[in-house]
Amino acid sequence: MPRCIALAALLCFVPLTYGGDPPPPNPKHVVDYVQWANDTVGRGVADNAADLYREAAAGMKHREELLVLAIGSGAWKWSEEQRQALQQYVQSSALSLERFESASKKRQCFLPIEGAAGFLLGARPAGLPQIHDLSRLVAGRARLRALAGDVDASLRDVALLLRVADHMQSGPLLIEYMLGLAIDTLAYEVLLDLPLLAPGRVDYGRVPAKLAALDTPLPDLTGQFRLERIGMWDYAQRAVQDTDGDGRYDLVSTAGPGHRYILRTELDPPVTLREMIAQIDGFYDQYQKVFSLGYADARRRAKELDEKARAADTTVLGTLSPSLAGFVTMPRKVMATRCAYRVVYALHAHRDRHGDWPKVLSDALSAPSGEKQKLSDPFSGQPLGYRLKEGQPLVYSVGVDGVDSGGEVRRKGGRITWGAEGGDYVFWPRPVD
Predict the structure, then answer these.
(1) Per-residue pLDDT tens for 223-252?
(2) I need a labelling partner for 21 at 20 to 30 A (CA). Which of 98, 108, 344, 358 fits?
(3) Mean pLDDT throughout 8-19?
(4) How far apart are alpha carbons 418 and 281 in whole angstroms?
(5) Rounded mean pLDDT of the chain?
(6) Domain around 72
(7) How many domains, in total, are found in the chain?
């Protein structure tokens, strides 16, 4: 069995579980929800990757210019000097990378939450920036290995990234989920680069099968939204005041040491704690329903909920104006990139078999109907955009705006943007900023 298959088979990932209902908030006797979350979500976690991730993070030296190079477009055009500089960075980080890989093979990962001034809202585990840095460096190492002709080693790095992404996406906080999505994207972009990094050395028909054990659906956001809701409860219990003693809270004031929110807002009308929690729960209950909608409806509804929360600026919810619409689009960006890599490999496999690119995408996709559904554009529900342009394949997603612009991209500050401002996202040919 090829080593990259063996590494994929090592993954017996076990999601975290969430315990019973949290204690109700109490402004007079504040509940420590950070401790509650650590005790509840962390209970029963076996073979935890957390310590190894922390050890890997502690030894990581940040070199932003090289990390940008590691994940930048056009790696097949790196100069010898750039390759050597990145290779030296990889070598100097060998111990951290070794621990990082060991951590990725653990069955579970729960990184203890640390909250500023006790607040659960805005809390995060230590070491997340370093985990992102290590992931970027692994992506760079994967590209270096491909350039050297070692495709199997490059695929092992991709498998490593996908395992780390699974760990992060299983974390109880939205910020961990976001990091997991970013790491997923790093992995699939390496796969999209491979045909240019190691021409003639990639088995396009077998690579998706080799990584199938790690090509798993993205988890839903039920657990993360639960903690986000409880974080809002925590904010409420710590920030509200009843200035006239009538049992209704009429002021929000957060100027505590170490907390990032500094504001003073009168609640209008004043509310009881029960009413305040009902407002918060109503918002998150409605948001949870958004994720069962199709993309266009979900995007519209999320925008409405965010705007409604911002407009209610004299409520506890409105003082923070939660904006969660990005969680409608961000997972779909990962899904589109994953879909694109599989489509691009199918196109290359077709050319290897027949000597030319297919005239229509369906000619290259021999997967059964269930598999073909995985290859649809998550922003449109239709197949990814495909056409031959000057004899070469053009593969693209309609992007965030959901409008097919025929593979035309938009740039901002010289960089290609996802279609929020119009334009599509092109996966092939590989973009070079």
Answers:
(1) 999 999 999 999 999 989 999 999 999 998
(2) 108
(3) 62
(4) 32
(5) 89
(6) 3-219
(7) 3
